[in-house]
Design a protein that fits this description.
Strands 1, 2, 3, 4, 5, 6, 7, 8, 9 and 10 form a 10-stranded mixed sheet that branches. This protein starts with 8 loop residues before the first helix and ends with a helix. Helices cover 39% and strands 18% of the residues.
């Protein structure tokens, strides 16, 4: 259940008239999914600290839109996004509180800064339905083969930050011409781009399609653990990661409580909960029942450069695949 960060004024006023009622310190956290992860972290933090956490959970786009609409009266204290680019943008606007958690000592340098730090990391993968009649693919380009005609889906990079990261990774590794030739070949082979991540994955889970090109790994790994007949394949030619940044807004009225929350998420207990959601923990000393960074072939992407080209890249993608 999504808890609204808005506090009912009438109820607050009524409670203030009652003797002996004390209000615990509270935080408002806006978080991209998964919902079970943030609800679990919030409950664990409250149990440890006594600080209530009000959660708004949605997609990264919904979280950022809410922040923008509340600029005149910010309500969030802590924000967790599924897009590293969003943290960089907020920092450039001077909207983030400076804090580096002592629990970030084992977080790799490229996943932490003085203003934001990864909660966890996902990677992009191929997801193949084992019950389909097509062979298991090994690499991105395999899906241009005739055997995969009309059997492939892809999340829309304009609606999925992770899918956009994949496109930028391909552009980095393969170059402009080869990348758009690959996307064109996938289109010509009947690939569909139905929307965000779930809309691309569901047809494969249901057996209507056979392979997702660019699935967010933790969602699929969780489905696989729950018994779905799918395989999550990380191409040897390389993939990209999508770190999930946590940040404290400079407008917070509860900086110490917000810092304690960041510390908790980066604690062994918090990172174990991250791992249980099939994300890679941000800390390198926490185990997870899934491939970790050192087990993947990663494409290094200049996120700042690609972020600056975002609209151009998306326009080109729409031109190639069709609106």
């Amino acid at each position: 259940m999504i808890a609204s960060p808005l506090k009912p004024l009438a109820l607050t006023a009524a409670l203030l008239t009652l003797p002996g009622v004390a209000f615990a310190e509270s935080l408002t956290v806006y978080s991209a999914g998964p919902d079970a992860l943030i609800q679990g972290l919030a409950a664990d933090f409250t149990a440890e600290s006594g600080i209530r956490v009000d959660v708004f959970q949605g997609t990264t786009g919904q979280v950022m839109a809410r922040l923008e609409s509340e600029q005149a009266n910010p309500l969030a204290d802590v924000v967790i996004s599924a897009s590293w680019e969003s943290a960089e943008a907020l920092h450039e606007q001077g909207l983030l509180h400076e804090y580096r958690s002592p629990n970030a000592e084992t977080v790799p340098d490229f996943l932490t800064s003085d203003h934001y730090v990864a909660q966890g990391i996902s990677a992009l993968a191929l997801v193949w339905n084992r019950n389909s009649e097509v062979p298991q693919p090994a690499d991105w380009s395999d899906l241009t083969d005739e055997v995969y005609r009309d059997q492939v889906t892809m999340p829309d990079p304009s609606q999925s930050g992770a899918a956009f990261e994949l496109v930028t990774g391909l552009l980095t590794a393969m170059g402009e011409e080869e990348t758009w030739r690959l996307i064109e070949a996938l289109r010509d082979n009947g690939m569909i781009v139905p929307g965000p991540n779930a809309r691309a994955l569901n047809p494969v889970l249901q057996g209507a399609k056979s392979v997702v090109f660019g699935a967010v790994d933790y969602i699929s790994l969780g489905q696989q653990a729950d018994g779905e007949a799918i395989e999550v394949i990380f191409p040897a030619s390389g993939t990209v990661i999508a770190p999930r940044p946590m940040m404290i807004l400079a407008s917070t009225q509860q900086p110490e409580a917000a810092e304690r929350f960041i510390d908790f998420v980066l604690s062994e207990q918090g990172q174990a909960r991250v791992a249980a959601s099939y994300l890679m923990p941000a800390r390198s000393d926490i185990d997870a029942n899934r491939p970790l960074l050192d087990e993947l072939s990663l494409i290094e992407v200049d996120a700042q450069e690609m972020g600056a080209r975002r609209e151009t890249i998306l326009a080109r993608f729409r031109e190639v695949v069709g609106d």
